[in-house]
Design goal:
The complex is a heterotrimer of chains A (507), B (422) and C (251). With 422 residues, chain B is of the alpha/beta class. Chain B contains eight helices and 19 strands. Chain B is 22% helix and 39% strand. In chain B, the strands form two sheets. Chain B has a ten-stranded mixed beta sheet with strand order 2-1-5-7-9-11-13-15-17-19, covered by helices on one side. Chain B has a nine-stranded mixed beta sheet with strand order 3-4-6-8-10-12-14-16-18. Chain C is built from ten helices and ten strands. In chain C, strand 7 (168-172), helix 7 and strand 8 form a beta-alpha-beta unit. In chain C, helix 6 packs parallel to helix 7. The chains are: A alpha/beta (507), B alpha/beta (422), C alpha/beta (251).
Chain lengths: 507, 422, 251
């Protein structure tokens, strides 16, 4: 019997209940009644003190949603969602809008502590810059040493942004970084101009639902010529029972502007499935660049696959201006169901889209994720690197579309899509759609599926590295190309997460 | 939440349903066959597949099939010269078998009409999975074809050529072939004609253990014909199937290839060429099942797109959980030579076994400018140089077949196409 | 240090027996050469010593410092000081050589209850050893063995061996694919490791390597058994007359 069998058995037995961030926080909540109706939407809009146009926008989306059907084309199976059995609004009670950390509920700060996320809030919130890692030389040799840059955090605790730091310094640079609710109140002209222009309210079932009921999310505006002085970060966290999370994020980079945005998620453990349907819209004007990184490790469900989060996300970036660039990097280890295709519309001439993805699935997780690169402008280019790792009883699907339209002269795409299988009860699937309507387009797509070779494993173990660690080492090598695209602090978390996700086999 | 109104039937759908009513009493078949035909037309009554059906994503048959010609028994079709010299030719002309059945040692040939009439063929009429529109269309209307049985251990001296020649109207044929244990054969399938016909043709190959078959499909319909074809094969232990496909005609073409590598040690090779011109639509869709351990496959599809032609390749490789040690490689390469043409590729991998080596690649490119420059630097004018490079791009696939008469015959066809369309 | 008694082993999947009653003893401080024609079971022996799971020991015993290692997995054997320099070192994409060295050295230290090496100390040691083997530091930043030439791979094996300081070194056809300069460098590396408390087993098809790494004993392996043992002169005899004579003699 090959040695790997032992690992497979262990992976099979993996205890997903060990979910590292599974704890609940008790903070008083202010909820809308369960269920979805025009009244719920009016309630949300009123709670948020929104202008009339915003309410109308939401209601229009809701009416549209009533005419839509849930999509079924993705390779995921789940019991029917009862949209009337969900709370659409829950806000921490004691937060009329803190202006400094002292005003924040200490419970919330404790949550951050418990998360133990590598952001190291204390340092960051105190504005501390960590000394550079001792051995840069070694770092060059391939080790990912944590190097803290400066990061601004906008936390969404359940549905309302509670704390925003670094606001002043950002304001000096002319960068607006606030919750979307605040933006609707304070910068209505910008929201009106850009909201729904990348993901229209009519786009798809979940995006339409989000348009009707979104409760919070981030808003970023980087004006012409400004390079955002720090990385912006939001830690989402689903908390209250049965509260669907409907974040709405809108990021705009004007001509020549640049921003790097980090999104990370953890969620407490619970029995009922939780729905999450976020919408993220990115707009890059001439010569602008947006880098959007995600580490997602929501609760994947228990050992029987029960209770995990349903993640139906619409993320899309519009390279609206010439020479603009949008880059998505994602590390997906959590959720029971993932339905997610961060995409780029390459409208501006010479624009570029990138998608780097690691999707790890274990237990009974189902992942259907990928990207769309729609080449519309001239000389546009895109690059897709996707690494899927399936273990346990999970199903891991890459679904990606690359298309060049008639006028997309010299469109270029390179896609590399690799899958690794650990154990014989999981599945890895690759579904690319490659569509060329321009003779000067050059598309290259490559995909492979394999398992960790026993020869490799034996070799690594012969050097004294125990089996679990050996697998982790090989898996981390497999995903290296994508890890390298992450900001340093995320790279560390990502590698740890991959380890945690395959726990039982890779300790 | 909302109701779908039953969509209005298209002219083509109505014509097919009407034709069934008119033709049914004239079609061969016992009670069981009639039930299958009836099931099939019921499936069609639900509507032709649209792009919302995943397996028809790029070929919206409901939209593309705008009209259906009436059956025309009066027209005459003529047999053509075989692709490979000395072949034993089985011609089906305008939807019916013609001429005397040949007698070859170890090979039994029957008309399919006979096997439909006595009902012995009924079980083989079952559809393939869901959305089997071509299977349904053919089952409903199939009138004839050849049933070929190559006995265990035999190797016919001459290649066998199955000709399906249409002359307009509707033609619905089937060609079931069984190749016995250890038998070896070369089989050519010709699909051609001169009319604006609607053709459905289904080939069903069962390959015994250790059998070896080279099967060539050459489709050269006129640019007025709709050609809906299916090639289904089941591979026995250690058997080898090499399938070569050339699409060089037709207005609306869909060729499905459905292969089940069902015996351990089975080896499947697919080599395909799509030569696309004019305002046409050509779809090659392959579903390959690796259902047992230790099977292997390679697929190479080369496409040349000119004019306003639209091309599609969908290839799905399914590896069952039990099918460890599968080795599967698929490649689809396209030269898009016109801004009005388009090509879509969907090479899928569905993998449930962990100890496998599977991969696919797809490219869409222009002619390599370095190669072009090199040839022109040797004094070859641009047009000629381009022609040479395009031809070389597809000829590569033919040369791989290595059987000299086959390579020569196919290259001659290739030359012919480039002379007309180059 | 190493005692192999009446060892029988077969390929797990096919059940084909490769080692058929092999006896061999190697003492601390000894360099033992194992020679034999192709297919005699030389590489299999090295894999079995390292604990490759594709092989099953059906009979006999392998004692290392007096204790059986048959129940230990490859990582445990490595931590106990058994090192195999592979004939065909595996490529590990995405894992930088330097990173790999760090993980391997620290895994072994951890198994022995030692503190992990500090990064500057590690770098210093790697630099020194790599220098002795004429290896470029840039190479160590590349993924392990990926795109290395045959000679580079062999050098990387010796580098690992020198850094891990094993007690029992097994070199499987380390000379194959090496030119004369590389052979000299690699041999010097191995010779530097000769010490009274270390044993080295050199598996080779040709006598060439033994001119550089002079053995204390030579053992001829044929059909899974040691059919003749002697001192280094046996290697010369084989070079002169080939294996046929010895095989006949044994039969």
């Amino acid at each position: 019997m090959p040695a790997v069998q032992d690992t497979i058995d262990r992976v099979r037995k993996i205890d997903v209940d060990q979910y590292k961030y599974g704890f609940e926080t008790e903070i008083e909540m202010d909820k809308a009644p369960k269920g979805l109706s025009e009244d719920t939407i009016r309630f949300i809009s009123k709670k948020k003190d929104e202008p009339q146009w915003m309410l109308e926008w939401r209601l229009e989306a809701f009416r549209r949603w009533l005419t839509l059907e849930e999509p079924t084309w993705a390779r995921v199976n789940y019991p029917k969602i009862d949209f009337q059995d969900i709370y659409y609004y829950a806000a921490p009670k004691s937060t009329p809008g803190p202006t400094s950390l002292e005003e924040v509920d200490p419970e919330l700060l404790k949550v951050y502590e418990k998360l133990g996320i590598p952001l190291k809030e204390q340092e960051i919130l105190a504005g501390v810059q960590k000394p550079k890692a001792e051995a840069d030389e070694f770092d060059e040799a391939g080790d990912n040493v944590y190097k803290s840059g400066r990061v601004a955090v906008d936390a969404v605790f359940d549905s309302v942004s509670v704390v925003t730091t670094f606001k002043k310094e950002l304001a000096q640079a002319g960068v607006i970084f606030c919750s979307i609710s605040e933006a609707i109140r304070e910068h209505p002209e910008l929201v009106k101009k850009y909201l729904g222009t990348v993901v229209p309210t009519t786009d798809n079932y979940y995006a339409t639902l989000n348009s009707a009921v979104f409760t919070d999310g981030s808003f970023v505006f980087v004006p012409k010529g400004v390079r955002c002085p720090m990385e912006l970060s939001t830690y989402f966290r689903i908390n209250e029972k049965n509260t669907g999370q409907f974040e709405r994020t809108l990021i705009i980079c004007e001509d020549g502007a640049y921003v790097s945005y980090l999104e990370g998620c953890t969620a407490p453990q619970r029995d009922e499935n939780q729905l999450h349907a976020a919408v993220v819209e990115l707009v890059a004007l001439d010569d602008a660049e947006i880098k959007y990184s995600t580490v997602q490790n929501w609760y994947p469900g228990d050992a029987q696959g029960k209770g995990g989060i349903y993640n139906f996300v619409t993320k899309r970036g519009d390279c609206r201006g010439k020479n603009s660039k949008i880059s998505w990097t994602q590390v997906e280890t959590g959720s029971a169901i993932t339905w997610k295709y961060p995409s780029c519309i390459l409208r501006g001439d010479n624009s570029r889209g990138e998608f780097y993805s690691i999707a790890v699935s274990n237990g009974y997780q189902q992942v259907d994720s990928g990207t769309k690169m729609l080449h519309l402008g001239k000389n546009t280019s895109s690059r897709i690197i996707s690494k899927g790792i399936a273990a346990g009883f999970s199903q891991n699907t890459y679904r990606g579309q690359v298309s060049a339209h008639r006028k997309a002269e010299n469109a270029r795409n390179f896609t590399q899509c690799d899958s690794l299988l650990i154990g014989e009860d999981c599945g890895a699937h690759t579904v690319p759609y490659i569509e060329a309507k321009n003779s000067s387009a050059q598309f290259e797509h490559e995909a492979t599926t394999s398992k960790i070779s026993e020869d490799q494993l034996f070799y690594v173990m012969q050097r004294g590295i125990p089996q679990e660690e050996a697998i982790a080492l090989i898996v981390n090598g497999f995903v290296k190309e994508v890890i390298q695209e992450l900001p340093m602090e995320f790279a560390v978390e990502a590698q740890k997460l991959i380890g945690i996700s395959l726990e039982g086999s890779v300790g | 939440m909302n109701m779908h109104a039953t969509p209005q039937r298209t002219a083509a759908e109505t014509a097919l349903i009407d034709a069934f009513g008119e033709r049914l009493s004239l079609l061969p078949g016992d009670g069981e066959v009639m039930v299958k035909r009836d099931d099939a037309i019921e499936a069609l009554k639900a509507g032709l597949p649209t792009k919302r059906i995943e397996s028809w994503h790029y070929t919206d048959l409901r939209r593309l099939l705008t009209s259906v010609p009436a059956h025309d028994g009066a027209v005459q079709a003529k047999a053509i010269a075989p692709l490979l010299e000395g072949s034993t030719v089985l011609s089906a002309l305008n939807g019916a078998t013609a001429g005397k059945l040949p007698s070859i040692e170890g090979v039994t040939v029957q008309s399919l009409a006979e096997k439909l009439t006595d009902g012995s063929f009924a079980p083989a009429l079952d559809p393939y999975g869901f959305d089997d529109a071509i299977g349904a269309l053919n089952t409903a209307f199939v009138a004839d074809g050849y049933f070929v049985d190559i006995a265990d251990g035999t190797e016919p001296e001459t290649p066998l050529e199955l000709q399906n020649v249409q002359a307009g109207g509707q033609t619905h044929m089937r060609f079931p072939v069984r190749v016995g244990t250890g038998a070896k054969a070369t089989i050519v399938e010709r699909q051609t004609g001169e009319g604006a016909a609607l053709v459905s043709s289904v080939s069903q190959l069962v390959l015994g253990d250790d059998a070896e078959v080279l099967w060539l499909i050459v489709q050269e319909q006129p640019d007025t014909a709709t050609h809906l074809a299916q090639f289904k094969a089941k591979l026995g232990k250690n058997s080898k199937l090499t399938l070569f496909l050339m699409n060089a005609g037709g207005k609306l073409v869909r060729q499905e290839i459905i292969v089940d590598a069902a015996g351990e040690g089975a080896v499947f090779t697919l080599r395909g060429i799509n030569l696309l011109a004019g305002d046409t639509h050509t779809d090659v869709t392959m579903v390959l099942d690796h259902s047992v351990p230790h099977t292997s496959s390679t697929e190479v599809i080369r496409n040349v797109v000119t004019g306003k032609a639209r091309g599609v390749f969908q290839g799905r490789i399914n590896v069952a959980q039990y099918a460890q040690k599968t080795d599967a490689k698929m490649a689809c390469n396209t030269l898009l030579l016109s801004d009005d043409g388009e090509f879509s590729a969907k090479p899928e991998l569905e993998i449930f076994a962990d100890d496998v080596q599977c991969g696919h690649g797809a490219t869409v490119t222009e002619i390599d400018h370095n190669h072009l420059f090199y040839l022109m630097a040797r004094g070859i004018d641009e047009k000629t140089a381009r022609g040479l490079l395009v031809k070389a791009f597809v000829a590569e696939v033919i040369e791989e077949l290595e059987v000299e008469p086959v390579v020569e015959a196919l290259e001659a066809l290739l030359d012919g196409w480039f002379q007309t369309h180059g | 240090m190493l005692e192999i008694k009446n060892l029988h082993a077969r390929i797990a999947e096919s059940g084909v027996e490769i080692i058929r009653g092999l006896n061999l003893t190697v003492k601390a401080g000894e360099v033992a050469a194992i020679m034999g024609p192709n297919g005699s079971g030389k590489s299999t022996l090295s894999y079995i010593l390292a604990g490759r799971p594709d092989y099953e020991v059906t009979e006999g015993e392998i004692l290392y410092n007096g204790e059986s290692i048959l129940e230990m997995d490859p990582a445990e054997r490595a931590a106990a000081g058994i090192f195999l320099a592979f004939q065909y070192p595996m490529e590990i994409p995405g894992v930088a050589t330097m990173e790999f060295l760090k993980v391997a050295m620290n895994a072994q230290r951890k198994a022995r209850g030692e503190e992990p090496l500090k990064i500057p100390e590690l770098i210093k040691r790697v630099k020194e050893e790599a220098g002795l083997l004429s290896m470029d530091m840039a190479m160590l930043k590349r993924p392990l063995n990926v795109g290395f030439s045959g000679g580079e791979k062999k050098r990387a094996e010796i580098l690992q061996m020198k850094l891990l300081q094993p007690n029992l070194c097994v070199l499987d056809e380390t000379d194959s694919g090496l030119d004369i300069d590389a052979l000299k460098i690699v041999s010097d590396g191995v010779n530097a490791l000769r010490s009274p408390d270390r044993a080295i087993v050199v598996i080779t098809h040709y006598q060439r390597l033994l001119e550089h790494i002079v053995p204390d004993s030579v053992h001829v392996l044929y059909k899974g058994q040691v059919i003749k043992s002697g001192d280094k002169s046996l290697a010369f005899e084989l070079e002169e007359n080939g294996y046929a004579g010895i095989i006949e003699e044994a039969a």
